[in-house]
Design brief:
GO terms for molecular function: lactoylglutathione lyase activity; metal ion binding. Keywords: Metal-binding. It contains five helices and 19 strands. With 284 residues, the protein is α+β, with helices and mostly antiparallel strands. The chain has a single domain, classed as 2,3-Dihydroxybiphenyl 1,2-Dioxygenase, domain 1 (Roll). The strands form three sheets. It has a nine-stranded mixed β-sheet, with helices on one face. An eight-stranded mixed β-sheet has the order 2-3-4-1-16-19-18-17. It is globular, with a radius of gyration of 18 Å. The two termini are 17 Å apart.
């Protein structure tokens, strides 16, 4: 089953705020390997395939550095098609000398972690075959074991780096929230996602269609963490794609029943989770 197309509900774009547009473009093109699709002074759209937007950069007026211990982006996660692709990314990052912040075997996937120059978190990962994932009832078994980087690098194509594979997509997003109970009510009772994993009482992983997770939610910045200043580096918004307008309208009805506002904009509905994370609700 495909986990990032109908009939699942999934993440397809993320917009982040940065302090220097030119510095960020250089990083996301030279280090991460994305391409510029559109650009003006304060806004840039990045793509992997040259056609579809994947990541958007915003430079607010009077932007301020990322505020610590607040809600917002923990990381966005770029999903590459194969282990060889992830090996090529790792080989490229080693060649560039860009510092990694982690590398993990999650049983369902293999991942490397880093941050952009502003401290926005990034995961680049590849999924293992879904038929190898282990389930205990309704929860998928995940872990954070050390990545066997030596073995992974043996899969590298050993060719000149040409950037992210065109098939790269936004695999998931992981958020800092202030309260897991309120987050669960919003994302599960409201938007319709299902819990697929707990990490103690500090994190939840939720998905549609039995993916290992489309959204991660954690309170690692503290229960009751504040929403950052709107000028702060970090998450601007992310988009959730529903299979059809009927499913989207049902989600809006559920959110309305929870006293959550949804505003109709051109091409999407805008809402906000209890921790101040802004979301665009769209259909394919």
């Amino acid at each position: 089953m495909k986990f990032h197309e109908s009939p699942t509900t999934y993440i397809n774009q993320v917009a982040i705020k940065v302090q220097s547009m030119e510095r960020s473009i250089q990083f996301y093109v030279d280090v991460i390997g994305l391409k510029v699709l559109k650009k003006n002074r304060n806004h840039t759209v990045l793509t992997a395939d040259g056609i579809y937007p994947l990541l958007q950069l915003e430079q607010p007026e009077k932007v301020i550095p990322k505020q610590a211990r607040s809600t917002g982006l923990y990381h966005f996660a770029l999903l590459v098609p194969t282990r060889a692709d992830l090996a090529d990314v790792l080989h490229h990052l080693i060649d560039k000398g860009y510092p990694l912040e982690g590398a993990s075997d999650h049983l369902v996937s293999e991942a490397i972690y880093l941050s952009d120059p502003d401290g926005n978190g990034i995961e680049i990962y590849v999924d293992r075959l879904p038929e190898t994932w282990k389930w205990e009832g309704e929860e998928v078994v995940m872990a954070s074991k050390p990545l066997n980087s030596r073995e992974l690098l043996s899969y590298a194509n050993n060719v000149v780096w040409k950037g992210m594979p065109p098939e790269t997509i936004m695999g998931h997003i992981h958020l800092h929230v202030s309260d897991l109970t309120l987050a669960r009510e919003f994302y599960c009772n409201g938007l319709g996602f299902t819990i697929v994993s707990h990490y103690g009482n500090q994190a939840l992983f939720i998905s549609s269609g039995r993916y290992h997770h489309h959204i991660g939610l954690n309170t690692w910045n503290g229960i009751g963490a504040p929403t950052p200043d709107e000028r702060s580096v970090g998450l601007e918004w992310f988009s959730i794609v529903f299979p059809n307008m009927i499913d989207l309208e049902e989600a809006i009805k559920r959110l309305t029943a929870l006293n959550v506002g949804c505003m109709k904009e051109e091409g999407y509905y805008k809402t906000e989770d209890p921790s101040g994370n802004i979301i665009r609700l769209i259909v394919e």
